[in-house]
Every structure is written in C-alpha cells, then in structure tokens.
Amino acid sequence: MYQRIRQELGRVVVGHDEVVEGVLLAVFCGGHVLLEGVPGVGKTLLVKALARVLALKFSRIQFTPDLMPADVVGTNVLVQDPDGRRSLAFQPGPIFSQIVLADEINRATPKTQSALLEAMQEYAVTVAGVSYPLERPFFVLATQNPIEMEGTYPLPEAQLDRFLFKLRVPFPDTESVVEILERTTGSRVPEAQPVADAQTVLRMQALVREVLAAPHVQTYVARLVEATHPQGPRPARAARRWVRYGASPRGAQALLLAAKARALVHGRAHASVEDVRAVALPALRHRLLLNFEADAEGVEADQVVRDVVEEVPEVAAASAGT
Prior knowledge:
There is one protein chain. The protein is α/β, with parallel strands linked by helices. The chain folds into 2 domains: about 1-200, Rossmann fold (3-Layer(aba) Sandwich); about 210-315, Helicase, Ruva Protein, domain 3 (Orthogonal Bundle), CATH 1.10.8. It contains 15 helices and 13 strands. The chain has helices at about 1-10, 15-30, 45-55, 70-75, 110-115, 115-120, 155-160, 175-185, 200-210, 215-225, 235-240, 250-265, 275-285, 290-295, 300-310, and strands spanning about 30-35, 60, 75-80, 85-90, 100-105, 125, 130-135, 140-145, 165-170, 210-215, 245, 270, 290. It has a 5-stranded parallel β-sheet with strand order 2-5-8-1-9. β3 and β4 (about 85-90) form a beta hairpin. α2 packs across α12, α10 crosses α12 (about 250-265) and α13 runs antiparallel to α15. It is globular and about 75 Å long. The protein starts with a helix and ends in an 11-residue tail after the last helix. The mean pLDDT is about 90.
C-alpha cells in the first residue's frame, strides 16, 4: 500500500523523494507536518495530492493577519426554525476536515495560531464550553516561507512541538524542473487517483504501533534527546555551546514512532538505531531553542542535530538497562 501511495503521488509531485517519504511517515504515525520552503516548490500541490490519494476530506485555510480563531474552528450562530423560534447552533469551521492545509501559518497572529493547539493535540475543539470531536484520521500540514519574514509571527515553541516533523522543501534540480514543465504545460495535466481510504490509513497507523523496538533502541532515543539539553547529565558538545533548551519528551516519542514507521515501509518489523538516526533531523530540528551565540554565528538547528547524532554512541543491547 505504501508503494502504491508513493507511485500515485509521483504522478503529480516531481522529485522531493525525501519530503514525500517524510510526509507519509508522519501520516502513518498520525502526526502533523510543518513544510518549509520558498513559494512555488510544490508544498500545496503535495498536500492536495495526498488528500486525493488517501480519499480524505480536505480543507485549506489561508492564514492572514486578520484571520480570527472563529474563522478556523467555527462559532455559534443564530438560527431560526420554521416556527419562528430562534436558537444558537454551532457552525463548524474549516478545521473540521481530515487533512487541513494551514497555508502560511506564520502570517496569522498568535491568538489565531493557538486555535490549532487543541485540535492538533486532543483531536477536538472547544467552543463556548462545548467540545466537538474531529473526525479521524486528522492531520494538519502547515506551510511557511523561510525568506519572507516581514509581517509574520514566529510559531511559539509549544505549537512547534506539536508537529511530528518539520520538513524543508528544497528548490528542484534541473531535471525535475524539465519534468515539471513537461507535465504541466501540455494539454493534459496528470491527476492522482485514490488508492486508499480513511479506514486503510487508520489500520496502517495501528500497524506502525505494533512494530517492535528493542530496549537498546529505546535507550538510544532517550539518550539522544537527553544530549540536546545543555544542562542535562550528558549533553553533547554542540548542545552545550549552541542550545538554550533541548527537545521535549514529545520529541522522543516522535523519534521512536517515526523510526517504527520507517522500519515498516522498508520491510522490517523492528525499529533499529539506523531508523532513529534517519528521522532525527526532521523530528528534532524544530524542537531545539538555540541561544544568542548560535544566532550571532549563523548556526542552524540542522547542524546541531547532526552533531548530536554523530556524538551520541549507539547503546549496546546488553547494557540497555544500565
């Protein structure tokens, strides 16, 4: 099923193999994704194609400075029945979908951004003291432009931490651009077709959680996250120098769950340390709060994560419990 989904996405999305795999791993984990890239590289196209391939309900929210929380989650409106009686009825917002594209999420005010927090964590929204559950599966795929910062509001750490992955969408190479031109400037534009449905996605998510992770792999995940904390008992050199605050326990959960999904799509029923290392960058890059020295010297979180992964040794299976 994974190969069928990738093949169908490949009819629409050219290149970006690592980004596509990252998004699918997040889907199989039931997690949300933050896509960062310049305009025109296919972020929106990827999300819309994913919704079509998985046959999930799709909605797009264009985040702007004047967007209000009620524009996202919905509000109570006054309605009148045929007998003339008036009452308040809840009008759901665009968050009531299964794949929600939060386009240019950092353009909305913090008040509006916070409207997503409950939905992303609890899979429900609360309006006027009443909680409304969201239909499963539910994913938020948000985009942001890394080069245009004027008029934007940086996402707070609490919201960043709720994204399973942060994926960088690079500019395509020459061959990919030629292929894009070939596909999109002719008389027929390819379209993706559904190959799965909501129940299939839910079964795949359940299967991911059945993948085994040996104690030494779990210990490695814990020590990797621990090494990102400069005040911890075993901080990595890069963390001690560049990091103000390291990854949270939710980061450890993201690491292990994504490693399980990666193992499964590569044909294995157990997660390995190599799987953890492979997903460390997208799972941790947005969870590190760098200090002033890192900002002054132009050090990015990606470099810190790579240094931490390189420094933390693999835990031997026999000594995992020590």
